[in-house]
Amino acid sequence: MESPLKDKKQPTSVSIRQASEPGDIDEVRKCFQVYTTWLDEDISFQNFDAEFQGLPGKYAPPSGALLLALDPDTGAILGCVAMRPLQLEQQYLSQRQSNARLCEMKRLFVFPEARGRQVSRALVREVVKRAAEAGYDEILLDTLGKMQAAINLYISEGFEETAPYTFNSLEGAMFFTKKLKVA
Fold it and tell me: What does pTM read for this prediction?
């Protein structure tokens, strides 16, 4: 019997591509700005300003990804997601396989007018696919307990709650993982 959490919804028509065309980084910055305003939390402990100014930075291929979701009919930007390689600090290694190749999903955001179209699901699936193709063993992410729709999405896509893998000073921080390779 299948788990009731396994959502079989398929994303509606959406095009996802690496942010590599002229103007794409500006579009990603717009997504990130709206996301951080919506989040309404101080994420300076993540060195967000340096990340924002240095895009694509750690999100550059081949070890990273900075993906934009677009409406295939209008070309409108619907949202974004990012992936970067992850090296854990010593205090977080005891919870993980020491030789595993890890990456982190960051900044999943869909503009409010595009919500309900399964754009987030398409972005999560694409970033997981690219992480596996890049040879990572595990993809990690952090989120906040107040972001219940995102948590439900992650669980429905096979992510499981895990021990912290990085510092997060925000109240209600939660950590998730998905194995990409069978051991």
Answer: 0.87
